Amino acid sequence: MKSYTFLFIAFFSFFLSGQAFAQKKTVEDKFWAAGVCGMCQNRIETALDIPGVKFATWDKETQIVTVIYREDKVSLKQLQDKVSSVGHQTKEIPKNEKAYADLPKCCQYDSGAKKH
Fold this sequence. Notes:
This protein is an alpha+beta fold. The chain has a single domain (24-111), classed as Alpha-Beta Plaits (2-Layer Sandwich). The chain is built from four helices and three strands. It has helices at residues 2-20, 38-47, 76-85, 97-101; strands at 26-32, 53-59, 64-70. A three-stranded antiparallel sheet has the order 1-3-2. Strand 2 and strand 3 form a beta hairpin. The termini are far apart. The mean pLDDT is 87.
């Protein structure tokens, strides 16, 4: 009887420890976000510094955000909403107008600001 109890406890412990240390699924996505400079890059990347995001970078030349995140914690739409909330539009989410108006003039891409 003791051996069955030991085996049951050992199996149950092994099963739980495997679940506890299982890797959560991360995905990599890319999306376009408007911007013109290093300050825009910092703003966009900082907006994406949230729980569930493992890595986020914005390329000034291509205006592409590359993000690696846990899809059980955050969605692609939520990430794009975060970028919009700091004044940068994506193809799917328009910019937050108030946040855009608060951007430095050199970052206001709709007014003809050039990459710098």
